[in-house]
Amino acid sequence: MPKQQIDPLFQLIKSISKSEKRNFKLYANRISSDKETKFLQLFDVLDKIDEYNETIILKKAKDIKQSQLPNLKAHLYKQLLTSLRLTQINHDISISIREQIDHAKVLYNKGLYQQSLRILDKTKTLARKNKKNILVYEIIQFEKLIESQYVTKSIENRAEEITREATEISKMMDGIVYFSNMSIRLYGLYLKVGYVRNEKDLLMVKEFFNTNLIPHDIENLSFFEKLYLFQSYVWYYLIIQDFLMCYKYAKKWVDLFLLNPEMINIHMDLYLKGLNNVLVALFYTNHVSNFKKHLRLLRKLEKEDQFKHNSNLNILLHMFLFVHRINRHFMEGTFDKGLHLVPKIESFLEENKMGMDNHRALIFYYKIACLYFGNGQYREAIKYLNRISDVRDTSLRGDIHCFGRILNLISHYELENTELLEYQIRSTYRFLAKMDDLQEVQKYILRFLRKLSSISPDQLKDELIKSRRDLKKWVNDPYEKRAFLYLDLISWLDAKIENRPVQDVIMEKINKNRK
Q: DSSP for 5-27?
């Protein structure tokens, strides 16, 4: 389903909180005269409607003419951003530092060079303390400009000092840019293909990683150089399915923040993502007790005050919490107990639909479908799997699109939709071939499901046992095993063979592993 185009102003208004709206009203009433209240009238109308429709807007805002609407929207958008900046200045150190840089610029423009330099010196100290290296670099460049206009007796020493500072920060920035480039490229590769599918994929990823990883002394790297290096290792090991090594570097990522606790509040989004990747790795290594410990650590963050003031952090936190609370039920086999999360997730997706990307929504749809499938509610599973099929853009998380269609087939088989199944199998085969994701496990499943519809009841159990035996040989295959990360096919076959709910089979296996 193509994403509906959203008006930027309407999207912004729908993203702000009640307190932010209240602050905007106070701000707008201070700066506007009686003749300029039309943009406030427009704000009230946009705030109350559910969908952007200019006909409805003009009908409700009777003082606004069609010809005035574009300019009023631009003015309202600018005033909203100004108000939000003032609201967030005490909660975001970067905004606060930039305000001081702006003040220094005003003083510079007035020819008050000494005052400007004093502000910049204090601000540079603050930026260094909070490891805002880009802002430190910007301040130093500004200091150079001012020093070239304002001459003192100490200019020679000052020139040497500022040159040394510029060289040091420039060298640090080069390292940060290099490692962050590597990290984002690996993450982009993960979003596109998921896990390696074959030896060609593996060689490509390994060659990229090894040829781009420059020699380095970890002890001499700055905070952000270490952070982006650890991130690069996390994406690399995640792609090649080495989850123990993925955990090792995700833990280094989190520990880096714990060793620099002042950075947690400043860069909470990066700390959250580190915890998320620790939990992802623990989920795939099936380390239940450690997983629960880190999940509790994530849940404690809900009480932190800054999540009330930052919508991005609030969305990230609850997105990770919902995903890993579902994963906990997968690890424990308690699919039925996990279903209480579905209405909460639906509400979360609806409330944040303006800012939620397709990638995140796909993950939720697939995990919810797996919850319903594990609980034997196949119609509900198909409902969510169809939502995945409705997303036409398959360039992101093609792996979820592919395995979503396979789980859809198995759900239709469970519902005995034999007439529909034949068409669905052909359609899925074509889709997987087009996506270049037709591996041996997928081919086997498609042949197996096609064969099942023609097998007599007295032959079914033998066929299921044979299929289980055939699939087991791929469980530890370095490339084929990824299919079992998405679908617990062996447990499903065990449930069919033993004529038991799949949830009971999974819980029994978990209890055996604990002993």
A: P--HHHHHHHHS-HHHHHHHHHH
Closest CA to 332 of 513, 510, 514, 512: 510
pLDDT tens-digit series, residues 236-266: 999 998 999 999 999 999 999 999 998 998 8
Q: Are 277 and 234 in contact (CB under 8 A)?
A: yes
The pair of three-digit structure tokens given for residue 156, joined into one six-digit string:
């020679």
Element (H, E) at 160: helix 155-193
Q: Could you tell me which residues come within 8 angstroms of residue 496 by beta carbon, excluding any fewer than 6 positions away?
A: 464
Using DSSP's 3-state secondary structure scheme, residue 416 falls into coil
Q: Do the beta carbons of residue 407 and residue 370 sit within 8 Å?
A: yes
The amino acid at 450: R
Collapsing DSSP to helix, strand or coil, 402 comes out as: helix
Tell me the residue length of the chain.
515
Please choose, from the candidates 327, 322, 403, the residue with its C-alpha nearest in 3D space to the C-alpha of residue 371.
327
Residue 83: both structure tokens together: 């108000």
- Residue 115: pLDDT band (50, 70, 90) is very high
Spell out the residues 6+ positions from residue 215 whose beta carbon is closer than 8 angstroms to its own.
none
Please give the span between the terminal C-alpha atoms of the chain, in angstroms, as a whole number: 47
Assign residue 488 a region: left if phi > 0, alpha if psi is -120 to 50, beta otherwise?
beta
pLDDT, tens digit, for every residue of 142-192?
998 888 777 654 556 777 888 899 898 988 889 899 999 999 999 888 877
Q: Which of 14, 6, 15 is nearest to 310 (CA)?
A: 15
The residues spanned by each domain of the chain are: 8-89, 93-154
Question: Looking at this protein, which amino acid is placed at residue 216?
Answer: H
DSSP secondary structure letters along 430-466: HHHHHTT---HHHHHHHHHHHHHTTS-HHHHHHHHHH
| 2 Cβ contact partners less than 8 Å away, ≥ 6 residues apart | 392
Distance CA 92, CA 266 (A): 8
454, 498 contact by CB (below 8 A): no
More confident call, 421 vs 224: 224
Cα–Cα distance measured from residue 86 to residue 98, given in angstroms and rounded to the nearest whole number:
12
Interval 267-285: pLDDT, tens:
999 999 999 999 999 999 9
Q: Distance between CA atoms of 310 and 474, rounded to whole angstroms?
A: 45
Torsion sign over Cα 78, 80, 81, 87:
positive
The alpha carbons of the chain give a radius of gyration, in whole angstroms, of 28
Cα 227 to the center of its chain, rounded Å: 17
Contact yes or no for 323/363 (Cβ under 8 A): yes
Q: What are phi and psi of 379, to 5 degrees?
A: -65, -40
